[in-house]
Amino acid sequence: MNIRMTIALPMAVVICLAWAGAVFGLCFESAAGGQLRSGRMTAFLPKILDSYVNSVPKGAVYAVQTDEGYYFKICDEADQVDYFIKKWAEPKFPGGTWAPLYTTTNPAELSGYIQEGVYLIRRDGDNWAIWNFAAGEVPKSKLYVQTTPAEARIRVLNIRPRFSQGMELDAGRYHIEVSAKGFQTDKQWIDVKPGEDAILTVRLKPAG
Description:
By secondary structure, the chain is mainly beta. It has two domains: 5-134, no CATH class; 141-203, Immunoglobulin-like. The protein is built from two helices and 13 strands; from the N terminus they run ββαββαβββββββββ. It has a seven-stranded mixed beta sheet, with helices on both faces. Strands 10-8-13 form a three-stranded mixed beta sheet, with no helix packed on it. Strands 9-11-12 form a three-stranded antiparallel beta sheet, with no helix packed on it. Strand 3 and strand 4 (70-75) form a beta hairpin. The longest helix is centred in the middle third of the chain and has 12 residues, at 78-89. It is elongated.
């Protein structure tokens, strides 16, 4: 038997949740009935993300921030996610869709991307991604890595696709490795901004 539950979390203590047993369609929300809480969600974001990591539903954090306050839901049940979108997102952006904003391994950086709007936050391994619901598509960015020696091998360590010059990426931080036989391997992070080309120049040092 499937059991659907929605649990409101008092913001005085956003708890780390664990659940034993066969529970399906379990969701946690900041206030019963989708009511807004006064203030800024960013003040509680570390606790919200901690609850997401330790709770039963591993779908995503769905959140809205307005002038009047904020509301969030941690959920993996399709019909409740659909209800959230119809209540908060589609009235503001009819025909809109989720668009990627930023990807990082440091969840503390996500606060800087939450203004007024409707957001989705999801964890995938070590990566955290934040999306917003928008009418228009957020432009991709292109990554170029210029190396010395020119035949050096280039890898992007925190994503699955193989590197290619001018590859299109969502905005975020990317871990670049450059290596070549007879040279010291270089690793560094680069910030990629929405719709802007990112160019990294790497000159390897001889080994030894």
